[in-house]
């Protein structure tokens, strides 16, 4: 069964600074900082304070789209719904 994603508002794939990412992802600066630190070896550091489109893609693929709601089948309580998330560029 597919996971259904409902977006509260459209997500624009563009370069973002940390503060914009916090707002768009809907998390505190502390959570955002931990999330970004956890995947920094994969995405690298921001360039001139901005995460590139490719870096933002990886962030979204890792943590999901902002404002999403996923319907997970009853038998898949331990499934990771974000692992199959694809972003159309």
Name the helix and strand elements from N-terminus to C-terminus, one letter apiece.
Answer: HHHH
Distance between the termini: 24 Å
Tell me the fraction of residues in β-strands, as a range: under 5%
Helix and strand composition category: mainly alpha
Radius of gyration: 14 Å
Give the helix tally.
Answer: 4
What does this structure look like?
The chain has 89 residues and is mainly α. It has one domain (1-71). The chain is built from four helices and no strands. It has helices spanning 18-25, 29-38, 40-43, 53-63. Helix 1 crosses helix 2. The longest helix has 11 residues, at 53-63. The radius of gyration is 14 Å and the shape is globular. The two termini are 24 Å apart. The model is unreliable at 81-89 (pLDDT under 50).
